């Protein structure tokens, strides 16, 4: 059997059709596999006070401290909690960072994430963040006694 194009044009047409259908099926399967985005959320407390001895807090790392210090006014930044999860377009996630603070994370089309910051059971803010940006998303709010809290989200 010869595979010369001139030997039997209908065979070549059938082979091309099969290859095209196979390629199309491969594209459908690849598109249906959810791509997971890893999300790390860190709840941070900003204050001018020294670290309270009664609380299980640790100082944030130097890189995060520098980033927050360039924007905000507090002398000390303490990590309250840290959570990591995987999120896909079909599987949004909620991360509970404390008794009063959680974040809802949803992956949107066009490489975007939508984050809802929940405080005391109410949505405080909703932000969209491009997953193409290497920068962290920082959400913040005032707290009592001239302090503040921050939720720092890293996507990869």
What does this 3D model show about the protein?
The chain has 156 residues and is of the alpha+beta class. The chain has 2 domains: 1-33; 37-155, no CATH class. It is built from 2 helices and 9 strands; from the N terminus they run H-E-E-H-E-E-E-E-E-E-E. The chain has helices at 9-32, 62-71; strands at 37-47, 58-59, 76-87, 93-96, 101-108, 112-119, 122-130, 137-143, 147-155. Strands 2-3-1-9-8 form a 5-stranded antiparallel sheet, with no helix packed on it. It has a 4-stranded antiparallel sheet with strand order 4-5-6-7, with no helix packed on it. Strand 5 and strand 6 (112-119) form a beta hairpin. The protein is elongated. The relative contact order is 0.19. Mean pLDDT is 83; it is low at 28-33.
Rg, Å, rounded:
25 Å
Whole-Å distance between the termini? 53 Å
In this structure, how is the largest beta sheet organized?
5 strands, antiparallel
Kindly state the mean pLDDT as a whole number? 83
What percentage of amino acids are in beta strands?
35-45%
Task: Kindly name the structural category.
Answer: alpha+beta
| Strand arrangement, major sheet | 2-3-1-9-8
Number of strands: 9
Instruction: Provide the helix percentage.
Output: 10-25%
Low-pLDDT sequence parts: 28-33
Pattern of helices and strands: HEEHEEEEEEE
What coarse outline follows from CA principal-axis ratios?
elongated
Number of contiguous helices: 2
Oligomeric grouping of the chains: single chain
- Tally of domains: 2
